[in-house]
Amino acid sequence: MPEMRVNGVDLSYIDDGVGTPVVFVHGAWMDLRYWEPQRQGFAAHRRFVAYTLRYHGTARWPDDGKNYSAATPCRGFSGLHSPTERRPRASRRALHGRAPNHDGRARTS
Length: 109
Prior knowledge:
By secondary structure, this protein is of the alpha/beta class. Helices cover 14% and strands 24% of the residues. The protein has one domain (3-108): Rossmann fold (3-Layer(aba) Sandwich).
């Protein structure tokens, strides 16, 4: 599984397809594998991107959890791409109805 360094932590991710990226963000007790059933259908028409949130999945924690908060997943989301890339789209449903508190580089549908 490929990893990407985001804000000092290596996050597992899947990047498949071409075109406008759609970022799939899993819920609290899951990891990027949650979105596997949707990958083939979305990747046929768009760029499918899913990643495992910090402190989730099977990866080792970067610390003892003292830095975990509701804002932690938002920091990972905002660091997913460079400022020169086209902004990814993230489903509000995937983000539990809330857009992340980030620097404005991502759009929600």
